[in-house]
Amino acid sequence: YLYDSGVVHGISATQFAPQGNITRGDFAVMLYNAFNVDSTSSGGSQAFTDVPAGTYYTEAVNTLHRMGIVNGVGGGKYAPTGNVSRQDAICMVHRAMRSMGWSTGSGGGSLLSSYSDGGSVADYARNDMANAVLKGYLPITNGRLDSNALLTLILHRVLTY
């Protein structure tokens, strides 16, 4: 579905790597494609010092940053080659949903206390993680949220929910 919709493209002409790690740059491109972000809003300066002009993720990262969908990691950096955590991915997805006028719900972070690792969710991500659990598009493994684990692709669930 995601390939047919133009959201993902694989890592080469002959490899897809569905179990591979997803970087922050790749996830920005996926969000950009998934939500059909208007590329005419991509003008402006570079948002981060580690997102140079001309990379495959430059337009996506800079545009999504200007829209308030992606944030950096501090020090003027985005860390595009670093792996995106589940909690960061959920926050980005929810910001993208809200920017498109979609409802993300209003569940409270207190829901997370029923999971053994609920306390490990960063304060900034608690409401978004709780909403993703309530909506059913955040996979739960053995009663754990694994908020800092590498992302398992959730965009399909969000787009087909």
Describe it.
With 161 residues, the chain is mostly helical. 35% of the residues are buried. The chain is built from 5 helices and no strands. Helix 1 crosses helix 2 and helix 3 (86-99) crosses helix 4.
- Uncertain spans, ≥5 residues at pLDDT below 50? none
Which class of secondary structure composition applies to the elements?
A: mainly alpha
Oligomer: single chain
How many DSSP H or I helices? Answer: 5
Measured distance between first and last alpha carbons: 13 Å
Question: Helical percent range?
Answer: 25-40%
Average pLDDT taken over every residue: 86
The helix/strand series, from N terminus to C terminus, equals: HHHHH
Shape: globular
**Rg:** 15 Å
Strand fraction:
under 5%
What's the structural blueprint in terms of helices and strands?
Layout: H1 24-34, H2 58-66, H3 86-99, H4 126-135, H5 155-160
Helix pairs in contact: 1-2, 3-4
Summarize the structure.
With 161 residues, the protein is mostly helical.
Which keywords apply here?
mainly alpha, 0% strand, single chain, 161 residues
